Amino acid sequence: MENNPREKALVHVLKQLQGVQHFKDAQEKLQKSIYNRGFFLCRKVREKLGSSDKFIAFLKQLHLYSSGVIDLTEFLNLVDDVLRADQDLMNEFDAFLEHCEKEQMNWSLRSES
């Protein structure tokens, strides 16, 4: 039955579907990693800023960026205005952005191969 062309085609399709599922699982794992780090960063921003107005301003800027209203450069300029007072927080924010870039590059390399 292995020589049956239909069975070979079915096996090929099933292997492709398994690859798609693996791709989806990896993509979900990547998103979860980034969301978790982003969540903890937002928590630290809230704790460090102390002022609910400053934190709300930060969240609004983050929303504008994530929805595509502003680009990364503009977002970084706005965030810098809010977070500049706390160098540790800026360093953590920079580390978060580097993590996101690294994960996206790794993801691109994996999906190309």
UniProtKB/TrEMBL annotation:
Gene3D superfamilies reported in the protein's UniProt record: Paired amphipathic helix (1.20.1160.11)
Record key words, sorted: Nucleus
Signal sequence, start to end: none
Alphabetical list of InterPro entries matching this protein: PAH, PAH_sf
Source organism superkingdom: Eukaryota
Subcellular location per the Swiss-Prot or TrEMBL entry: Nucleus
Nucleus keyword on record: yes
Biological process terms in GO annotation: regulation of DNA-templated transcription
Transmembrane segments: none
Cellular compartments per GO CC: nucleus
Main location: nucleus
Protein known as: EF-hand domain-containing protein
UniProt organism field: Malus baccata (Siberian crab apple)
